[in-house]
Amino acid sequence: MSTRPRLRILELGAGAGSATETLVRWFDERGLLPQIERYLITEPNVFFRRRAQRDLAKQYTDLALEWAALDVNLPWDIQGVAPGDFDLVYAVNVLHVSKNLLFSLNQALSALTADGWLVIGECLRPYVNQPMYPELMFQILESFTEVQTDPEIRPNPGFLTADQWRSAFTRAGFERTEVAPDVNGIREIYPHFFTGAICGQNPSYHK
Q1: How many whole angstroms separate alpha carbon 114 and alpha carbon 205?
Q2: Sign of the alpha-carbon dihedral angle for 28, 91, 177, 113
Q3: Rounded to whole angstroms, how far apart are CA atoms 115 and 205?
Q4: What is the pLDDT of residues 7-33, one digit of tens each?
Q5: Which terminus of the chain has fewer CB atoms gathered within 10 Å of its CB, N or C?
Q6: Which residues, other chains included, contact 105 with Cβ-Cβ below 8 Å and sequence gap of 6+?
Q7: How many CB atoms neighbour CB 160 within 10 A?
């Protein structure tokens, strides 16, 4: 009998499934797909969700994929995500448009097991108030601009800096927060590097 851990994954705002496919391919290339016990893929847009479901269900017929329309701005438990249900909460370019960022981060923390991780990919602003061409097209979207600001973690709508994400994760209750790659070091050489990943762990594993 295998003693390898079984993983339950929750993905937020999957869109048409490109980030889902990237993560599943990573597991597949390493022979780790059998470790995934459950993968709940959420996307509120019906068109994107159905497209992703059609394509991914064809590619990974033996994978336990589930689909739902989670709104990160509403309580997750009333949308079918019970506290402590998941080992990994995963999202790419989603949480920066959460209306109340700390609320959504707290919901993610609640959804995690005692040693679970939140891992997100985001566009990162190298310096506070630095203009970024990737966000120019999003300025017309209400979901991008009509968010709750905070002087420490989100002084303006749009993308956050690495330090703001660290502060947000800490205030939400995460520990062992990391940002990769070292965007603060990279910006000294190239101030237009805009991509990174942020992760944090549920601290209740200490208890």
Answers
A1: 5
A2: negative
A3: 5
A4: 999 999 999 999 999 999 999 999 999
A5: N
A6: 95, 98, 118, 168, 169, 171, 172, 174
A7: 23
